[in-house]
Amino acid sequence: MAFGDAPADTDLKAAWDQFCERLKEAGALAFKDANPANALQRADAFRFLTQNLGQAFDLALETKDAAFPQIHWFTTPTMKLGGDVADFTYRQAWISGEHAYRLTGRRGTARWLNITVQGPRPATITGTDWPSLHEPFGDIPERNILGSQIETDARGNFELFIGGQQREHNWLPTTPGSRKLFIREAFDAWGETPTSLTIERIGMAEPRPMPSPGRIIDAMDWAGRFVADLMEQWPEHAWLTSGGVCDPACLNAFPADKSANDASDARRGRMAAHMLWHLEPDEALIVEMDMHEGFWIFGMGGAMMGSMDFLYRPVSYTPARTSVDADGVVRLVIAHDDPGVHNWLDTQGFSDGNLTYRNLLSQSPANFRTKLVKRGDVLGQLPADTTTVSKSERAAMRLDRYRAIKRRFGI
């Protein structure tokens, strides 16, 4: 038996060839102007591509049938996408308004959990001419429920129903256009534990059909567009379409309006802001924020907006893990090497990247200030009572991080 002996051979080969061509074009975008022309960050762009190539067919095929839903982790310590933030976990499940689902699990101790039903994905961002972000993003949030609103038994076990008949408790309605369940969990202290989750369609009695040639061809098309679009749209999409992200013309500063806080953000249960930074080898950046209520997270990302190496490096801070100065100010230091201060954000050797701020549980506005300094002047630019750490203390902090992140992902 050889090529051409089966009826779908020609169509399958054409679809695969098109996928490979799109992958080749996606690789060429690693050299775009928005990605700094240094060896480490050129390599990181290809890593960003290959990480997402690894999940392309999980999203396009293996979990795509809404009649046989599966929960998929689309960011992990080894897979970054969509401006993900360290100290969040991101999961999704393809669903359909035609069906009803049961989501079961045990509530962990993470400080924040948000489960959202996402609706149709418009061609353009609402109210603009900008195209929606690539699949699997761009959906319109329809309804959400917070972890604090989910009723559990004494051990934390729960059932949450998605769609179907209205229920008084633990129910998220759907619409005919509902297409995805988006699950985010955010962690503060290292000892917090994740929520376990599994999903099934109510009435699911038959096995999932084996994929036909037509289904495989559709998946190849979806996966090819996915890898091409993510390389084309990141990072430019962030500043072209969001009021909460400064463009490269305002490096090392947060946008003047401080946060993106529209109705869509409210349904996602967050406030957000992003700063693009650039540091020469002998520079450091001091970032200040007046301490405020709520649950906030600072997380470092690379040029392609994916989170930095949060498994091994200090690239994120939350209230439980941050030293606040006596004057009520949070001061973070972005530097290429350890300046010996508690709140160090490691650049992991990158010359350029972004710092993302998320505020959950409150609408308290943030007040940011930044100061670019010489690396050797860092300690002189900080208050005398700034918390410092020794090399052995930093090593212990890294180990605490490593163990906590592995616990979150069960790895």
UniProtKB/TrEMBL annotation:
Domain (DUF1214) ranges: 93-182
One Pfam family per UniProt: DUF1214
InterPro entries named in the record: DUF1214 (IPR010621)
Stated name of the protein: DUF1214 domain-containing protein
Source lineage: Bacteria, Pseudomonadati, Pseudomonadota, Alphaproteobacteria, Sphingomonadales
